[in-house]
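Each letter names a residue; structure tokens follow underneath. Both lines appear below:
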Amino acid sequence: MDFEFFQNRAAEGMRYLTIQNEDAKEGDKSHLIDELKGKRVWRTSGVGVIAYGNGDKEKEGVKQDVWREWGRSHGKDDWIHAARARTDFYKSTRGLKPLVMWKLVERGGSLPDDALPIGREADGQFLYAARSWWQGGLHLGKAGAHLINHASIPYGGGEHGLDIYEILCGPSDPSLIKWMTFRHGERAMVEGWMPVEGGREKDGTPLLLAKGEYENGEHPGKCLIGDDHACVGWGGGELWVRPFQILAFCSPNRR
């Protein structure tokens, strides 16, 4: 028991040091570009191009600029290449890796065993958070083994099926992640806490992983900072739902 305790403490210490190191490096444009190229995979959660730079306007500005510039000359194939590199890294490494992570599901592939259930249909079937490249951005939606193509995103008033997508994976551990609730009339503000990494609009604006209730189900989707609703896909359309929730890390040092 004592050995396991000290082993866990050592692992937590290594994670803390890695977070400090990667937090510093993500402000460097070259590291962010390497991430988009698939040449860099971050070992901890909450860092990188797709993670909102909460509390650091300068760093968040760099991320938005990098995403916007990258999208002008790159597209879906480049995103797939980087997503595949991330997934291969997660599968192969025995060292430190993020506590929650996005894994690529190829055409016809099944959902990963550690896919994180965060929603449900009215009949109780599980729904998961999905994301995919769409119109120059990386947009958030939902996945489920029962869905057509297994995943979809809401965009431009419609719900669009996906043939290749990333799905959020990790332990369902209440000490790691939590849901921040916004009621009718409240806007999504994130001061003082850290959202789980989500997506980006074409112009680099961050998208947060959200969910909301509709027709007796809980549907994963997306939200912009400052919005008073979440966007979810349902029945072929894009719906605004209120109240809504945003997924966040419980602590900056537990990610």
User: Anything to note?
Assistant: The longest strand covers residues 126-134. The mean pLDDT is 92. The helical segments are 2-25, 29-37, 57-73, 76-92.
